[in-house]
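Narrative progress, year one. The postdoctoral researcher (J.K.) led the effort to move from monomer predictions toward full complexes, under supervision of the PI. The following entry was the first complex the group processed end to end, covering 724 residues in total.
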Amino acid sequence: MSTLNNPKANKAGFAISIENLGKRYTIGRQRSANDGMRHVLETAVRAPFARLRSGWQKKIDSVDFWALKGVSINIKHGEVVGIIGRNGAGKSTLLKILSRITVPTEGKISIDGRIASLLEVGTGFHPELTGRENVFLNGAILGMSRAEILAKFDEIVAFSEIEEFLDTPVKRYSSGMYVRLAFSVAAHLNPEILICDEVLAVGDVSFQKKCLAKIKSFAESGKTVLFVSHNMDTIRNLCDRIVWINAGHVQEDGPSEEVIESYFNELSKELKVSRSNPTYGLAIENVLLKNDRGEECNQFQPGEDLVVEVSYNAQARIERAMLALGVLGINGACFISSMLLDGHCPEFLEGKGKISCTFKSIPLLPQSYSVKLSIRAANASDMIIPYQEVAYFNVVGDLADYGYKGEYETYAARSTSVVVPYEWQLPDGSTVPVSLSRVPQPVGSPDFTFKG
Amino acid sequence: MSELVIESGRIERQYWRDLWRYRELFFFFTWRDLLVRYKQTVVGVSWSLIRPLLMMTVLTVVFGKLGKMPAAGVPYPLLVFCGMLPWQFFATAISECGNSLVMNSNMISKVYFPRLVITVSSVMTTLVDFVVSALFLAVLMIYFHFPPHATLLVLPIYVLLMLGASLGVGLWIAALMVEYRDFRFIVPFVVQFGLYVSPVGFQTSIVPARFRLLYSLNPMVGIIDGFRWCILGAATPVYWPGVAISVTEVVLFVASGIWYFRKTERTFADVI
């Protein structure tokens, strides 16, 4: 790669400086395969007449849509910044502009340093080519020179752990192998600024961790990283600062914890819109999370009770509707409560009402979680409300309060979400109980200290 | 160099520098296309030979034997093959160019590099076929005991013209195809039609003199004539006004092709 870098060039000393960025898309105009040139020809033919009719006014069938508007962000050298926001908020557009895939409609971006962007792993991989051939091709597309790829080839292959399949066409690879190889190439780019989009959403859990560790080591080596993800936990773990993009503008920009909290609050608020099934005449009006004191709450401590309160409105009488709730963490489902499983369901739902479920002393590690809900009809096969996310919450707390004294806590805490109470029986005959499932009492509570 | 600046309205000034920076990518795309092309085929690279050979046979039979077109003392297969050499290149190149961006749309929407690389690479890939065909022509000439003339030295100029015509038209089609997939239907038609309109199976001399200038508006006419003149010598005289028209058109096509490509390139990722 050539040198796009000169640390002193940027007066303000920012790695990335975005000023008043805007990107406009024109929507409402058909751009499908059947309606290509005909449209243009037609418009050209009609144009003189149309102008006669409407003067020089703008066509009304096209609507401007600002995917980004007035976005200004400054990122210092060595900063690790996360970008969050809902689907369609403009995150991808921002990354595409930063990666020079598309151009902004207005505004200016200055980038100081050699930049690499990974909007996808394995871009340009050709299924017919072998792993070896694809390493070269992909490397070149990402901007590496042949000499550079040759020099790093062994390293790339070693990281991917697929040496034996190097000369097999990648179309015969399992998706895991494919992703491994693809990420290995990307991981050996050596930019000063890295832009990453949900690259970790692929591959199995162990590989995701490997990727994350790579990005983390990259960040720790003082490089600038811009990271987009929907996984709050990953992003919290990686980034010191978060920019929350909402409807094309910067909603909040600040320390990770603060931004994530307001983002969650906003998400929970928006989720209060009703979900309904007109066929059954059932609407879920609200899903509230409460603590054991009955207070509405989105932050829980490990060991607290989690109350999920579902308010419904049944216009028609629904016999024996079966409710299922699931609590999901970074690695998927943690636990569920399901009437399909336990068989306890309401005789009928009619009019407005509430169903609550209390998850007792949730043994969850401090991470981010979501709650999913589904309602099935009495025959168990018909979905009244399909399984979907209805609420979000964070578990917060200091593990030390629970008697944890591990030094590698941040490492280990990502491997799971649920910790049921357990006891170690050590060689010296001592028994050490560990439990997350009770809220720690103020100092001196014997339950949560290690017993010798 | 200084920092990278991305700004609206301004095409990145770094473009041509980037093109140089990504120069190896030309090679990689060409290499990929060649590697991929004959994967899972039985006869493989031989297809580069079989296709022109069959085509030459058909055209020789149709125009030479059935149509009894004049051959000016040159073996008819040679006459045909000299015409096919630039025409096949042009036809394949514009088809490949047309599909180049759309086929690689995944890359275009996910990673940055000068898009010109893709389209130019598809012309380069076609050049490999051209070389194979040219070697085959040499074999044919030996077979027919037809020694080359001194005019062969001028051939590189016509090869350049052929490259220019293909690239110029190819760039237009590639860029237009991104937004208007209509060209998916137009291009094969042009290619098929062009084979009969251009002097591939016959010589330009059979066109009546008063239509000669009009006929030469097809840029490939001047180029094909030139190829014949270079390879077969004086038996196939050159119509100079036609060559002049070809040269002008090629320059126009290349310049406007690059201009249009660059103009639309910025929005490829948005419309593709």
